[in-house]
Specification:
Layout lengths: L3 E6 L9 E9 L7 E2 L6 E5 L5 E3 L6 E2 L7 E7 L4 H5 L3 H4 L3 E3 L15 H15 L8 H12 L5 H8 L3 H11 L4 H15 L5 H8 L4 H12 L3 H7 L2
Antiparallel strand pairs: 1-2, 2-7, 3-6, 4-5, 4-7, 5-8
Length: about 240
């Protein structure tokens, strides 16, 4: 048995445009070195014994240790989608965790007994707020989708495809993603690297879009503080 069970769940149809996934984490043993990597997303998280909070878009990795028997659940928004539901700009949340009660006036009802119950509670609250949510910025969502398909896409080409000027694209990214398209591309390239097949690192570097293995290593250290060989065994 692994020391923790992490499971992702596909969003329901009415949330598919906004949500990348729901997720649960249940710890069987303590996780003193639980490494959380930047992914360009904003999460609403409910952990056992804690008040729910919003984890903003991170620019670098951080450790989030958990004790044996602990659990957590989250709703992970697609890059650019969270502000329409939360009602705050993404750059206000960058590299921060904020109590959900500071963003949504009413607290969640009930005390979940496990990770699946916590996820169900978050899901119900999000669905209840969906009718009053603002429409997401479709140009930003389209631009983020371009970067998900090609993390090395240039800002100029993305601006042309979405019909925005480069300056306007960057400004909208700050509001809805939390940082600019170039940084989001770097983050998504890292995610692509770690999700790739277990080939030699030099091959994985090229497949993910890095110039070479040295470039990959520099970027991994810059974004996470660790080389890729360590990330492969400690990231979650």
């Amino acid at each position: 048995m692994s020391c923790a069970d992490y499971v992702e769940y596909a969003p329901t149809p009415q949330l598919r445009d906004l949500i990348a996934c729901g997720w649960t984490l249940t710890c069987h043993d303590s996780l003193p070195d639980h490494r959380v990597l930047p992914d360009g997303c904003i999460d609403i998280i409910l952990a056992g014994g804690c008040e729910p909070f919003v984890a903003g878009p991170s620019t670098s990795a951080f450790d989030s240790p958990m004790s044996a028997g602990g659990f957590a659940a989250g709703i992970r928004f697609r890059p650019g989608a969270a502000p329409s539901v939360l009602g705050v700009t993404a750059d206000e949340l960058r590299d921060r965790t904020v109590p959900l009660a500071d963003i949504w006036s009413s607290a969640l009802g009930g005390e979940p007994v496990n990770a699946r119950a916590a996820l169900a509670l978050l899901h119900r609250e999000l669905l209840a707020r969906l009718p009053t949510a603002r429409a997401p910025d479709r140009a930003v969502l389209a631009a983020a989708a371009i970067l998900a398909a090609d993390p090395c896409a240039s800002v100029g080409s993305i601006a042309t495809t979405t019909g925005l000027g480069e300056r306007q694209l960057r400004r909208r990214f700050l509001d809805h993603v939390g940082y600019g398209p170039k940084r989001l591309g770097r983050v998504l390239r890292l995610q692509r690297l770690l999700a790739g097949p277990p080939e030699p690192w030099a091959q994985r570097a090229i497949a993910a879009g890095y110039a070479d293995q040295a470039h990959m290593t520099r970027e991994c250290v810059a974004l996470t503080g660790r080389p890729p060989t360590r990330l492969a065994t400690s990231a979650a």
